[in-house]
Amino acid sequence: MKHSGLADSARPFAEYTEVRSQENRSSQISLLNGDVVSNGSGTQSGVSARVHKNGVWGFASSPEKDRAALRSCVERATANALFLASKEGRDAGLLPSRPGTGDHDLASGSPGRSKSELVEFMRDLDAHCAKSLPGLASRSLGLSRLDMEKTLATSDGADSWSLIPRTLIFVSLTLAARGEPIELYDVFGGLGSFEDVFSEPSALYGRLDLLAERLRQKARGVYAKPGTHDVILDADLAGILAHEAIGHTVEADLVLGGSVAADYLGQPVASPLISLTDFANDALGRRCPVPVWVDDEGIEARDAVIIDRGVLSSYMHNKESAAHFGAEPTGNARAYGFSDEPIIRMRNTAILPGQSSLEDMIAGVDRGYYFLRPSNGQADSTSEFMFGVTMGYEIRGGKLGPAVRDCTVSGVAFDVLKTVSAVSRDMSWTAAGMCGKKQSIPVGMGGPAIRCRMNVGGRA
Amino acid sequence: MTDRADGMDVVRAALKELKDAGADQAVASLTRGEKSELNVDSGRMSLYRTTANVSIGVMALVGSRKGSVSVNDASPEAIRTAAKEAVATARAGRPDPANGISPARELERFSRGQDKPDSEAMYARLREFVDYAGREYPDTMLEQCVLDFVAVDTFYANSNGAEFAERDGAYDFSAMFTTKKGGRASSFNSSGASHLSLDTPLAQWGTLDRLMRESAASLDARPVDRAFKGDLILTPDCLGDFLSFLDDAYLGDYALITGNSPWKKKLGRRVLSPLVTVRSEPNGPRVELGYGYTGDGFRAENCSIIEAGRLESFTLGLYGSNKTGLPRCPSGGGAVIMEPGGTPYTDMVASVKRGIVMSRFSGGSPSKNGDFSGVAKNSFLVEDGRIIRPLAETMVAGNLARLFNDVRAVSKETVSFGSSILPWVLCGGVHISGAVKGRGA
Fold first, then answer.
1. Minimal Cα distance from A34: which residue of B?
2. Closest approach of chain A CAs to the CA of B125, in angstroms?
3. Does A28 contact B at CB distance below 8 Å?
4. Do A300 and A162 lie in a common domain?
5. How would you write the pLDDT of chain A (460 residues) with one tens digit per residue?
6. Do residues A177 and A30 share a domain?
7. A114 close contact with B: CB closer than 8 A
8. Is A277 found in the same domain as A211?
């Protein structure tokens, strides 16, 4: 429910002020080998205020949400800003303004399922896994739901409310192979309430069967050979490449902090086949996994075109970095919880689809790898990145060979992207990402399959 | 944070609500805290942040069915609603005889550190650090530094009569930095530590000064020339990550409940090099920031995890212990100390024929069988006993158990991070490769 009267609290003060009321509602059910090992819910709610004074910020938050708590937050944030400004203040000029307004409610209109029904839904999936792949060493399944509800007002006129739900099911299966546990996992779901994302358990059976079959292949798999190889990254890996390898280096706060991308604006950084955008809310005619219409500084959110046909064209900005670079703010300032300050975060970062077919791309590789599933990833200010690969295949003579065990791929992003020789015409999004830059926050990642050269870590 | 109701009264009242709602057994916990935080972004102080929060968690067992709810509202109405919700959730779940709660224990209170931050001292120490970094390492950019003070009261009570209360007030500092000069840039690095006071300059916390010095010397990093099997020196920062990996793959609840841990039948047997001794000492006195009680409601007791390579304890909690029939970890598994060895760090480096010193591992989570692979960040090539040059685009791969079985030396020197104390460790037999042209798959 929209927090009424918030805008009144932001406007009477002399300094630029933001006030936010937020409630994060989460729930989770976890099954381990059929046992319900966790079944719970949580709510974190409160109000916060942030004040800008002479180039520095003051922030304060409270778990209470009444008018007195809100006023207290504004006063404390103001005092904090004044404290720091008295010691570190500078002539900073005005922050840019493009106040966003509007309400966005993406919660389901359908009646919710009961706790018992949700537990039984998960038990049904678990039973199918056990039946689909007899001899599993372990099964781990989890249902995770998060509703983020925010009301925001700023002293320059932003006034917005949003309720964004996300529902995910995690499935991890382990098989013993030659006495060693071999694991593979997948994630289903994304933007929306449970009722809008999932229907019946049987609708997921096909994907669970595919997971089981790939696990069988992986258990018989080989180790990747270390070195630099021709590699096809499927959509999930292209998405994490877009996020980790490029996205972080072009967040304007990291550019100011020493990212190598500071030297490349307007320069070719990738093959002309590569275009990359951080989408605000809709992309290519579809709603993005993590839509943002008004960011947590009250900026009306717009797409940030990062790479346009191989040329680095812009960064992702908050108000302060936009002022520094003389750019338009992009609406990338986001906060995870009510007590978090907004910082520059990605929203829905994707490489745009190209013209090739995946089959032709594979056929064009004599010796290399086709990687399908990532685990975690990290990036560096140098644009050197790594991410784990949990599912992939060798390519020999243009055909898929045996599956490969877990490995890690790495490279210098602005070098690797120059080696891209094909981009598929298909594209898919993953909605399960959590980015851990100071605060952990949901992000969307997407892309087509791309063919490039990349370092593969393995056993010599 | 002290001007409200006694937290023990709040959790006792929550227990009553749980019992009234129909719980057969119950747990209630309350956390109340305030944080004061100063931030440096891109080399300049940017934000002063103060946050307050409260969190109440209630857990109900109906028979052996479990349900839990947490809310950040400790009002009687909110607690009553949460208790009813927890009981309803439990009733919707499935029976599991492994669910349980800790036995009765008379209320015990713990306290460490200060109640309130010294804001002027925080500012002065942070300003001193920024000035020091600018003076000593002029090409090193402080991407982000966070100095905070967190004062937190926690309260625990369960329906068996176990009760604990703990107050902590501690400073935590972390810094992330990179060096850039003339179009060349080092990898970013970060580290930090926690302490009960600000008596020591921040640059001396943990390994920060050493890492900034290494960052400044890492502008001309390049890959190793060829793939080889060599030695790996894990620095204290990196060792902390690898001990966590070891815990996840071999020692913890998930690994043992699933049966995936290769060590599930090796309690009391040698599993690692005799040079490896790892203890968990939340009860002090060596670890500055320990804790008084475990998350599942037991008094935290110091214990040995690995003693001279022999597996002394898993890190199982109560549920994992009940589920597997293996002993519960009396310490809760935190406040880790790896005991030092007898080798000075310089002698350790001198003994390496060909290998690397790795300060940060950027890699995928190790596989369930302990296999790991990733990028050696902020690392240096060692040849014939000398540190030769900084590395970039260099990958390492191996197996956790084999890595810690192949330990050849543990340093005499250790580093206290406040919540752990760790040395340097020299291991052999690691696959090391650079970004060179491969032979194809």
1. B94
2. 13
3. no
4. no
5. 776 777 676 565 668 999 999 999 999 999 999 999 999 999 999 999 999 999 999 999 999 999 999 999 999 999 999 999 999 988 888 899 999 999 999 998 777 899 999 999 999 999 999 998 888 999 999 999 999 999 999 999 999 999 999 999 999 999 988 878 899 999 999 999 999 999 999 999 999 999 999 999 999 999 998 888 999 999 999 999 999 889 999 999 999 988 889 989 999 999 999 999 999 999 999 999 999 999 999 999 999 999 999 999 999 999 999 999 999 999 999 999 999 999 999 999 999 999 999 999 999 999 999 999 998 888 888 888 888 899 999 999 999 999 999 888 988 999 999 999 999 999 999 888 889 888 999 999 999 999 999 988 766 5
6. yes
7. yes
8. no
Using the Cβ of B145 and the Cβ atoms of chain A, whether some distance falls under 8 Å is answered with no
Looking at the fold, whether A166 and A29 belong to one and the same domain comes out as yes
Structural domains of chain B ordered from first start: 7-216 (3.30.2290.10), 221-441 (no CATH)
Inter-chain contact A384–B187, Cβ cutoff 8 Å? yes
Domain region containing A441: 227-457
Q: How far is CA B325 from CA B147, B264, B319, B320, B348, in A?
A: 43, 11, 10, 8, 41
Residues of chain A neighbouring B394 (CB-CB closer than 8 A): none
Cα dist from B398 to A104, A294, B405, whole Å = 49, 46, 12
CATH code for position A208: 3.30.2290.10
Answer left, alpha or beta for residue B378, where phi above 0 means left and psi between -120 and 50 means alpha: left
Residue A378 has phi, psi (to 5 degrees) of: -145, 155
| C-alpha distances in Å from residue B357, one per residue of A455, B214, B315, B337 | 21, 11, 29, 21
Residue whose pair of structure tokens reads 């500055």 in the numeric block: B288
- DSSP reduced 3-state for B250: helix
* CA–CA distance, B190 with B173 (Å, rounded to integer): 11
Question: Is the bond leading into B201 cis (omega within 30 degrees of zero)?
Answer: no
Inter-chain CB proximity B96 and A36 less than 8 Å: yes
Listed by number, the residues of chain B in 366-395 with a beta carbon closer than 8 Å to a beta carbon of chain A are: 367-369, 371, 373-375, 377, 392-393, 395
Which residue from A minimizes the CA distance to B186?
A382
The ipTM estimated for the assembled molecules is: 0.92
- Euclidean distance between CA atoms A51 and A53, whole angstroms: 7
Among residues B44, B47, B42, the alpha carbon closest in space to that of B148 is found at B47
Our count of domains for chain A comes to: 2
